[in-house]
Specification:
By secondary structure, the protein is α+β, with helices and mostly antiparallel strands. It has three domains: 3-132, Immunoglobulin-like (Sandwich), CATH 2.60.40; 142-392, Metallo-dependent phosphatases (Purple Acid Phosphatase, chain A, domain 2, 4-Layer Sandwich); 401-518, Immunoglobulins (Immunoglobulin-like). The protein has helices at 3-12, 152-166, 188-196, 223-229, 268-278, 301-308, 453-465; strands spanning 16-21, 26-33, 52-54, 59-61, 67-71, 76-80, 86-87, 99-102, 123-132, 138-144, 173-177, 202-205, 234-238, 241-245, 249-254, 260-264, 286-290, 314-318, 325-329, 341-345, 375-382, 385-392, 401-404, 408-409, 418-423, 432-436, 443-444, 446-448, 482-486, 494-503, 509-518. It has a six-stranded mixed beta sheet with strand order 13-14-17-18-20-19, with no helix packed on it. Strands 1, 2, 5, 7 and 9 form a five-stranded mixed beta sheet that branches. Strands 12-11-10-21-22 form a five-stranded mixed beta sheet, with no helix packed on it. A hairpin with a 2-residue loop joins strand 21 and strand 22. Helix 2 (152-166) packs parallel to helix 3 (188-196) and helix 5 runs parallel beside helix 6 (301-308). The longest helix has 15 residues, at 152-166. The protein starts with a helix and ends with a strand.
């Protein structure tokens, strides 16, 4: 960023600093109470003590006057760890402005997508503005997995499919868990403008499709992300919960064909940041790790396990896979904590990459490979506990499972006719049962690892109807939340309801029915 541009941002109140140069090896500044809300430190506005500030490795607490100092290089991002009961300013796109980027030479100029413009000399003081905010112990947050638009048409899908119904939400903030884009980084702007309409602060995690692929290695692969969103990993508090956003995309590996690709993992600097960050977080707080690649797919995940497994309250959430699951990580994966760690692989906004037949609104159904619909999650936090709601796009909130069976069978075929129930937010602890009509006996369904036949049949039908199409659904996977049982013998001829009751990962009961015709 050039000095004139920096002065413009200061006038906008996005951050405040003096332009006189500081020591070349140290940055310093003040975290202050922005009493008039203009983002600038005016006369009489006090510094705030005991607030954490980081350079993405070290973390310091401000002194009694709100002052801080940290080591600096020619490529450093500083940020304030937003404390509970305080809020940073927001951009016009509702993106929290809690950081300052110091890149005197700017990002590499030969990248297809621009990064950060040269920022010039290190300011004498980098000041972070905070204003008081009421943050209750119980609150909601929205989690998007992989919106992943590759075209402006797909940006519009997101607007119509999920954003419109979220405008006016009572959630306190939202988070996109990576793959904000599908490689087309020029779409950050229109996408961010749409998300801003939801009307709440929106944080972002970097994904493998949000990178500068021109970069030969990981070091410069996040430059365009920096320009739009700031640091690629950071932390903040809201109410009684501590959130850590991670960058678990390591770009620069070579595959068997010699092409540059990525792997899941954290480098030494980021692990040091997490360790230093957690050292300042009381054990009675719930710590939520947010990442793109699931925890169980990170190469050096046990190093991260060592940092969190002794804490009594931890949770993690990711995207990336385009299926939804509740994983409970235990000693079989190298976890040494007293109880398994709960990791959520979040439902994706784009489902199966915006594939599938279009509905009456012109939007692909985008059913995920595990047979669950595309959508998003709403998580309710209450102290150290949480409950996650699976929200299918443009569906009622109580649409929580799908029943798959034939519409018509012969009486003699009942015992060999399976009924499948896909409980979208189900887990190993869920229970599912069914009965034929209100007087039928309840039958327990068994959790199975199979492809969802509904997804298989949908895919086969769409491929048969349009063999030439290039937007066919991807192949099915073994669904992590599928239950199966066979119809009972002796069903009388006629029309009957199949009544199903299912509990989700949090033990909540959901009900639905399907009509069966017997001849």
């Amino acid at each position: 960023m050039k000095p004139s541009f920096l002065r413009h941002l200061t006038l906008l109140g996005l951050f405040s600093f003096a332009l006189s140069p500081a020591r070349a090896d140290e940055a310093k500044g003040v975290v202050f109470h922005d009493q008039n809300g203009n983002g600038l430190r005016d006369a009489g506005e006090p510094g705030l003590p005991d607030i954490a500030v980081s350079n993405q490795r070290e973390i310091v607490k401000t002194d009694a006057e709100g002052r801080w100092s940290l080591p600096v290089t020619d490529d450093t991002i500083f940020f304030v760890v937003k404390p509970s009961g305080w809020m940073t300013r927001l951009s016009d796109q509702q993106i929290p402005q809690f950081y300052y980027i110091h890149k005197p030479q700017g990002s590499p100029a030969n990248f297809r997508y621009p990064g950060v413009a040269p920022t010039g000399p290190l300011p004498e003081s980098i000041d972070f503005a905070l204003t008081p905010a009421e943050e209750p112990a119980q609150f909601k947050a929205i989690f998007f997995g992989d919106p992943q638009p590759a075209t402006i048409e797909q940006v519009d899908y997101i607007a119509d499919d999920v954003i419109a119904e979220l405008i006016g939400t009572d959630a306190k903030f939202g988070v996109t868990l990576g793959d904000i884009m599908f490689d087309k980084l020029e779409l950050f702007e229109p996408s961010n403008a749409n998300v801003a309409l939801i009307g709440i602060p929106w944080y972002n995690v970097i994904g493998n499709h949000d990178l500068n692929f021109d970069s030969p290695g990981d070091e410069d692969s996040d430059e365009t992300f920096h320009r739009h969103f700031g640091p690629n990993y950071y932390s903040f508090d809201y109410g009684p919960v501590h959130f850590i956003a991670l960058d678990d995309i390591e770009w620069g590996r070579r595959n068997a064909e010699g092409r540059v690709t990525y792997a899941g993992g954290l480098d030494e600097r980021q692990l040091a940041f997490v360790k230093n960050d957690l050292a300042l977080v009381p054990e009675e707080k719930l710590v939520v790790l947010m990442m793109h690649i699931p925890l169980t797919e990170m190469e050096n995940r046990t190093e991260l396990y060592r940092l969190i497994e002794k804490r009594p309250y931890t949770l993690s959430i990711s995207g990336h896979t385009h299926w939804h699951a509740h994983q409970f990580i235990d000693e079989k994966d190298g976890w040494q904590g007293g109880k398994p760690h709960h990791h959520i692989v979040n439902v994706t906004v784009c489902g199966t990459w915006w594939k599938g037949g279009k509905d009456e609104r012109g939007i692909p159904h985008a059913t995920m490979r595990d047979g669950a619909p595309n959508g998003y999650s709403i998580m309710t936090f209450d102290g150290t506990s949480h409950v996650l709601d699976f929200k299918a796009a443009r569906q009622p909130a109580d649409y929580q499972f799908h029943i798959h069976s034939p519409n018509e069978i012969a009486t003699a075929d009942a015992e060999k006719t399976p009924v499948y129930v896909n409980v979208f937010n189900g887990s190993k602890d869920s229970t599912v049962r069914m009965r034929i009509g209100e007087s039928g006996a309840w039958i327990a369904l068994e959790k199975v690892l199979e492809p969802d036949p509904y997804y298989v049949e949908t895919r086969d039908r769409e491929m048969a109807a349009r063999p030439e199409a290039k937007n066919h659904l991807n192949g099915p996977i073994l669904s992590d939340h599928l239950w199966k049982a066979f119809l009972p013998a002796g069903i009388a001829a006629g029309t009957h309801p199949i009544q199903v009751e299912a509990t989700d990962a949090y033990g909540r009961l959901w009900k639905d029915e399907k009509v069966l015709r017997v001849k």
